[in-house]
Design goal:
Blueprint lengths: L10 H4 L3 H4 L4 E4 L3 E4 H17 L7 E5 L4 H12 L3 E4 L6 H10 L2 E7 L3 H6 L9 E5 L13 E3 H5 L14 E6 L9 E5 H16 L10 E3 L12 H7 L4 E3 L5 H10 L2 E6 L1 H8 L8 H4 L3 E4 L6 H9 L3 E7 L6 E4 L4 H4 L3 H8 L4 E2 L4 E5 L14 E6 L11 H7 L5 E9 L5 E6 L4 E3 L2 E3 L1 H9 L4 E11 L3 E10 L5 H13 L11 E4 L13 H8 L1
Parallel strand pairs: 1-11, 3-4, 3-5, 4-8, 5-6, 6-7, 10-11, 10-12, 12-13, 13-14, 24-25
Antiparallel strand pairs: 1-2, 8-9, 14-15, 15-16, 17-18, 18-19, 19-20, 21-22, 23-24
């Protein structure tokens, strides 16, 4: 018998009224399919029942390999709600890392879209640990595959209604793997309770941010569903009853058409996706549909130049911060009392910072002795955090887990300063920081300054070994208009003159390149840039 007034913080209980309260609200997949919440939760029940019928048990890990589709969304709910563990496989990994992560995660069943099957079939002998393959294509037609045993997704979903258990809130719900930019990717797991608490904090943070998202705002999230739960927004959106539009594979033409046809008002993405959309050659045709679009930018700092370009088109873009190990949300650039009374330009400048912690996040910026740095907007320290939704550690890696949680705080590896009003600005990743003459040169501050120059598209700054100073900064720039190296130095020297940057921060070398290499999650891949330097 459950204790009186006991209530598990699990996904079943979080969404216990959603299908009833928002029964007619739509979930849309491209221009291919749309269904009501009522139909969606009916299919979620059917998927859970079908998975059980082919042998999926509580505690089994079920992988998904797909773009951002309606079927992926169904798995987001059905798999963890039935007590299995959802593994969102990074489809941008090379084949050897896809295999590594699936084997390491101990996957037993796989839900996979047909276009990814050839990669798996080429190495099918390696996947002997998989007990069943659930396959489908975009048109719900027959799929032929060498992977066995296999089941058709739509046949699975036709099963009878499933009674979701009232799971212990500490049951593991999800696993996914980090970007793998240094060594093998690391697995991070989250419990039912982690996801519930994160969803509630995210809903609070988004509602009270400058973008003020409400129930009438239609969502289209451009964060891959394999990446940190798509920042938790698939859960938050349905909790609040928002129309939810899934773009499938990210193609600028499709994104702009959905923006127009589905009246999208809220999105989230990394800076490179926003840059890609705003660089569309036919963007002018969609100008009227961009007005009022509100966007959260995470995964990397929001460059001021990109935010200004968005603002000129009637788009509001604000910063947020988190990482794979934190589910991910830690901060949003909400307005606290000091900023809510400020002028518009001050508000804009703080809206593109890392922001302030959302409820239930205990965040500090500390020195090497775990002592808080002064809130002077100058002294650099590492961000460490505690919160009810952080991962307990890396899957099957006790050594890395101990390093992550050294001293009882989760160490982010991000270097930041705190402003006197409490706002946080990340200046670098610890592993990316340029260390020159024993001092940090904040690459993100330099990138931000360069982003404001007319003619600069994307930009990345890294350190180059230097015999005297240890390292010196080097800038890589993608041009969107003709500019010369001398123009860049002239621009930076103006920032030196007004005190925005220090003279010794100015890069020793500037390279113009066609594109910035990206990680599997769309961030600048500075490891690849270092290789280019050699």
């Amino acid at each position: 018998m459950p204790e009186k007034n006991s209530f598990n913080l699990n996904l079943r209980n979080l969404f216990i009224n959603t299908a009833k309260n928002f029964s007619d609200t739509e979930i849309v997949y491209r221009n291919k399919r749309r269904m009501t919440y009522s139909k969606f939760f009916q299919r979620v029940n059917g998927l859970a029942a079908g998975l059980k019928s082919i042998g999926v048990k509580e505690g089994d890990t079920v992988a998904v390999i797909d773009w951002d589709t309606d079927k992926y969304m169904e798995a987001y709910y059905a798999v963890p709600m039935m007590g299995a563990i959802l593994h969102t496989v990074n489809i941008r990994y090379p084949p050897e890392l896809i295999y590594y992560s699936m084997n390491h995660a101990e996957d037993k069943y796989v839900i996979v879209r047909d276009e990814f099957l050839p990669i798996l079939e080429k190495n099918k002998q390696m996947f002997d640990f998989i007990k069943g393959w659930i396959v489908y294509n975009d048109d719900n037609g027959t799929v032929s595959t060498q992977m066995a045993p296999n089941y058709h997704y739509e046949d699975i979903v036709k099963n009878e209604k499933f009674e979701f258990p009232d799971l212990d809130e500490n049951t593991t719900a999800t696993i996914f793997y980090t970007s793998g930019t240094t060594g093998f990717p690391k697995g991070v797991t989250f419990t039912q309770r982690n996801l519930v608490m994160h969803t509630l904090a995210l809903a609070n943070g988004v509602q009270f941010s400058p973008i003020n998202v409400g129930r009438s705002d239609n969502f289209m999230i451009l964060v891959p569903m394999f990446h940190v739960h798509s920042w938790g927004i698939p859960y938050m959106g349905l909790l609040n009853g928002n129309k939810y539009v899934l773009p499938g594979r990210y193609e600028v033409g499709t994104i702009l058409e959905l923006l127009k046809n589905e009246n999208i008002k809220f999105s989230a993405m990394v800076p490179s996706i926003l840059y890609m959309v705003l660089s569309a050659p036919n963007l002018e045709e969609y100008r009227e549909y961009l007005k009022g679009w509100r966007i959260i930018i995470g995964g990397a700092a929001l460059p001021k130049g990109l935010a200004m370009k968005a603002r000129s088109l009637g788009i509001t873009a604000i910063g947020a911060y988190g990482l794979s190990e934190t589910a991910p949300l830690l901060t949003i650039a909400m307005y606290n009392d000091s900023i809510s009374r400020a002028d518009d330009e001050t508000k804009f400048n703080f809206s593109i910072t890392t922001g302030i912690p959302v409820p239930m996040v205990n965040l500090k910026v500390v020195d090497q002795n775990m002592v808080d740095v002064p809130a002077d907007a100058k002294t650099v320290g590492e961000i460490v955090v505690r919160s009810p939704w952080l991962t307990k550690g890396y899957f099957k890696d006790p050594q890395k887990t101990e390093e992550l949680w050294k001293g009882g705080w989760l160490h982010t590896g991000d270097l930041a300063v705190i402003h006197p009003n409490g706002y946080i600005s990340i200046v670098d990743r610890e592993k990316d920081a340029v260390k020159s003459g024993g001092e940090f040169i904040p690459s993100l501050v330099l990138e931000n300054a360069l982003s404001e120059m007319k003619g600069v598209g994307e930009v990345a700054v890294i350190g180059k070994p230097h015999e005297k100073w240890g390292e010196r900064p080097v800038a890589f720039i993608v041009k969107n208009e003709p500019i010369k190296e001398s123009d860049v130095y002239e621009h930076l020297n103006k920032y030196v003159d007004v005190g925005r940057i220090q003279k010794w921060w100015v890069p020793d070398e500037i390279y113009f390149i066609d594109s910035i290499p990206k990680t599997s999650t769309g961030k600048s891949d500075k490891k690849e840039l270092r290789k280019m330097l050699k």
